[in-house]
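Exercise 7. Given the components listed, write out the predicted structure of the assembled complex. Treat all entries as one system.
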Amino acid sequence: MIHLRGISADAVIDESTGAPTVVYWGAPLGHVDPGSITSALFRPVQQGSLDVLAPISVVPEHGSGFQGRQGLSGHRQGGRAWAPRFSTVATVPVEAGIRVEAVDALASLRLITTITLGDLLAVECTLVNEGDTRYLLDALHPTLPLPSHATELLTFDGRWTRELHPVRRQWGSGVFLSENRAGRTSHEHPPLLFAGSPGFGEWSGEVWGVHVAWSGNHTMHAEAMPDGRRYVQAGELLHPGELCLEPGESYAAPTVLGVHGQGLTPASWGFHRWIRRSPAAPRSPRPVLLNTWEAVYFQHDTEHLKALATAAAEVGIERFVLDDGWFGSRRDDTRGLGDWWVSPEVYPEGLAPLIEHVRGLGMEFGIWVEPEMVNPDSDLYRAHPEWALTTDGYEPVLARNQLVLNLAHEGAFQHVLGQLHALLRDHDVSYVKWDMNRNLVQGSGADGAGGTRAQTVAFYRLLDELRALHPDVEIESCSSGGARIDLEVLRRTERVWTSDCNDALERQTIQWGASMLIPPEVMGAHIGPTRSHTTGRVHSLAFRTLTALFGHLGVEWNVLTLEPREREQLADAIALHQRFRSLLHGGDTVRFDPVSNGQGAASHAYGVYSTDRREALVAHAQLTTGMALLPPPVRLPGLLPDTQYRVAQIPLPGAQVVWQASGIELTGAQLAAHGIQLPRQHPESGILLHLVAI
Ligand code: DGJ
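Answer.
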């Protein structure tokens, strides 16, 4: 038995079960005899059951009698070796955890499991084919047990422009299953779920969160078993026959990450801290950027873009990002993908004049690419139709008029890498917005077998090789908005584009959900046009500012069209973000239980506490009309109870609501216990509060 102690949770591992078993994962236990846990939780065999109780090991085994979904599925020729049973052969300590090796000599398989616990619980499983025949692997899904009192689930729904919407569900019995076959992390099935004790909230109840760090297909399976036990199983979803291990070959499953906390807010800090320690974690203040997409779409013109850049610099923009439309024949979304050379048609003198202009204004220059794609109407496709990820003999399914480029094909891979390298080598570019705008459909590799996994692995390799060539260039993970937000891509990218929806009301919920996985400094959040391009809603600059403030701020608005007053207010909004940037991007994200309007949230309160809890920035956003005349007092748990705070309203650009009590001094205990009464606010408006310890 091994007792692991993390930042805010403990785990006790029984390594004797072949694939090890997490016998406890939860609140810190102090110094205890780990063996006492198995004694305390011993389950006697019941009538009507097998004579053994198979553990919910990290890879539960049908061969041992496990009656849920086994963690490893596969077989050799003739259906043999389909129900392995592993025995532990070695346990090795690793930093913050253990590595357990187990074998099934009959099935000729070796399973290597690493479990570590720091900011979060990380489980890695590798299967090795030690036989002399091929092993067809269907699934290797790491599994974490949950206690019987985790009876509610928080899962996430989504679609394009409506990502990461939290959904609460009772989880009395049976299976909750979420499967993603999009070939990218997906809008529809984010690889994230939380389970918790009845009625758990942001600061109450016990909460476990599980995430599959993977940017391809995945499955998440949460089962409340008829025998009363519960577990979450998560991993890569493979197409039929997609993965075949030849003798000596191995397969490493995506890392499964688990967080635990008293309430959702503290639980999500585990994910945030892990991202903050990742190799790609942003190390410098996040530059406020202007993205040209909603400002000009495909209407590229150097002089107009220079004027846009000048106006952007005047309001305080620090990074200018040139979006889709600068390359090849790309004048609209029907052609050009794959031709990553500057279009002489729109940039007769190349990009240099624009880049020099941007750099001369003191801004960084960023550029959009979509390296994994090709339009049939492109030079690349005309030269190499065989590089498309399709299945021979079938008419390929297009999406946004484009096909996927088979990055597992070495020629295609080197071609794209070479073009991206040349682009970054020849231009003063410090930022790449890496987009990916379609799901994969019927994409096969050269051998005709499913190619999603190989494509996902090649995508990571392409990012890795490009980063090695250009270590100072930052990369944003964009995928039609937020279809590629996961912790594996965030080991290689400094930012995600959270959604193509810049409507502040929609963003309130999208970012609320996203904040359960990612911290503000990697969450792209833009102030969009007054009338949203994706919903048609009109929002004040104050509400748009309040919403975008709590992310990596950007502007996606044609600032050349602004009235002088709007321009001043936008400059104020950017200055506000810059004033609080180190707090916003270094503190702990906090959310407070939403107030219901009977159907959904009437208002959101959320913010950031400094890690020493001596400063905080808190937003109250009124989403709809409330059921009561006034919103209930906002209570702020988690501050220093005996410390006195001055609580002041920070005016938002153009906002008129005044909080009469601004400047009041209250203790952390008071803020948690009775909170503060805010004034009535119109739907789609809000208030910003700054708290400083006196
Ligand atoms: C989808 C992205 O999410 C948008 O921000 C924009 O870059 C377009 N693609 C460009 O085609």
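Discussion: The longest helix spans residues 564-586. The mean pLDDT is 97.
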